[in-house]
Amino acid sequence: MTPLLRAQPALIALLLLVVAPLPAQTTALLPPLAFLGFEAGAELAAVGQQVTALGGRGLHCDRSRRDHTVQDCRGTVIDPASGRPLALWLSAIDSLSGILTLSGPVTGGQLDSLKQALERSYGVVGARVQGGQWMQQWIRRGRMLRLTWRIESGVKLASVSLVDGRVLDGWGKRNRLRPAADTRGGKPAPGP
Fold this sequence. Notes:
Elements: H1 3-19, H2 23-29, E1 34-35, E2 38-39, H3 44-53, E3 60-63, E4 70-78, E5 85-93, E6 96-105, H4 108-122, E7 128-130, E8 133-140, E9 143-152, E10 155-164, H5 165-177
Antiparallel strand pairs: 1-2, 3-4, 4-5, 5-6, 6-10, 7-8, 8-9, 9-10
């Protein structure tokens, strides 16, 4: 056998290792879960800029009285596809979006277009039903995008939620390490 023929299996194996992505490489190459330019885990300033870019007015945020690192924010944006307003709600922790939801009424055609666009971007997933509500969900790198729809008083409502599990986990871990609050005054409970 010639040296070239003996080297061929090794060369093929090397090419397969270089060309075939590993599972971790594959997920790193996939685009982050996003909707209308919003991403879970985004800084509040970036979310505010995207709200303005989508024809909305600035976000209105209120700090939690129990935990000053948490903000509840609301706003409205204009859906570029339909021209209809979408309500925006988000919960931010340390100025990072933990949960962001955009919602509003849709027609059957608009819902189909939304589902198709998400499936083109993130892959086909089956829809699940719970009670009168349907949902599709995509999970990637500690983040989730969920499309939910239902009929309420004869109107079809849809929402897209972006959740950053790392932001929520960090907040939960911090809260477990804090001293328990005295429910009467909101102050740490006295030590032993």
